[in-house]
Backbone:
């Protein structure tokens, strides 16, 4: 009798495994357009990034004045949170835009890192070039974000 129970339990396990493996999980449809609700949610992430974009004029003036200590301080101070904000925003975009936004955010910070190195070397030409490239990529990032 115990042998029959063991065989019956094994058969039930095999049938359950077969039925579970043959079933398919429901697939969720990935949205391909921004809804007004999603856009309003994104605005929470966009506000500090827009504020940082406005502060870039101050950084440009510091570079023009060759105030290298303040350039370094500004990059690590007021713009220090920007990387986290940009990557956080890119994760909340639609799937089709996430990779491009994350790449642009990383590129912007590559320029900031090179700008920081140029400031440490007191190289005005390289600093201006990296600043200009950072602003271009920053604006490209902001253009990916849907407007209300």
Residues:
């Amino acid at each position: 009798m115990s042998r029959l129970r063991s065989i019956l339990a094994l058969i039930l396990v095999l049938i359950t495994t077969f039925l579970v493996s043959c079933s398919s999980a429901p697939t969720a449809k990935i949205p391909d357009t921004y809804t007004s609700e999603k856009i309003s949610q994104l605005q929470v992430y966009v506000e500090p990034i827009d504020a940082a974009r406005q502060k870039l004029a101050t950084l440009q003036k510091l570079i023009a004045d060759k105030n290298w200590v303040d350039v370094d301080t500004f990059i690590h101070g007021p713009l220090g949170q920007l990387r986290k904000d940009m990557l956080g925003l890119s994760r909340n975009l639609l799937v089709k835009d996430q990779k491009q936004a994350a790449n642009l955010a990383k590129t912007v910070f590559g320029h900031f890192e090179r700008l920081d190195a140029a400031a440490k070397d007191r190289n005005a030409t390289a600093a201006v070039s990296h600043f200009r490239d950072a602003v271009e990529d920053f604006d490209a990032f902001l253009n990916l974000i849907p407007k209300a």
Summary: The mean pLDDT is 88. The chain has one domain: 37-144. The helical segments are 2-22, 36-64, 68-76, 82-91, 95-121, 124-144. Residues 32 and 96 are 8 Å apart (CA to CA).
